[in-house]
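Narrative of accomplishments. A recurring question from our advisory board has been how the design workflow behaves on a single, concrete structure rather than in aggregate. To address it, we present the structure tokens for one chain from the evaluation set, followed by the sequence designed for it. No filtering or post-editing was applied between the two.
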């Protein structure tokens, strides 16, 4: 089973996208639920995105500097690792 890493809506109902500042993990890394995996900046705040579950980072789609729409897939975590 795979879990989607997506750009969440953070606080503001008017938020349409966020800028990926950095990944705190790499493809192949094992992560636990709630572990910070990325830093994202909006027009108001910088926040760490937590892992949605336990598993291994399979693919990171967004690159640092990308402006990612709310709800867009940023990467995948495999839970069968």
């Amino acid at each position: 089973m795979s879990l989607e890493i997506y750009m969440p809506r953070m606080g503001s109902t008017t938020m349409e996208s966020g800028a990926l500042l950095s990944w705190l993990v790499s493809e192949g890394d094992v992560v636990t639920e709630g572990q910070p995996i990325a830093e994202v900046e909006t027009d108001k705040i910088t926040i760490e995105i937590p892992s949605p579950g336990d598993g291994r980072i399979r693919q990171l789609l967004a690159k640092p500097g990308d402006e990612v729409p709310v709800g867009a897939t940023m990467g995948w975590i495999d839970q069968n690792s």
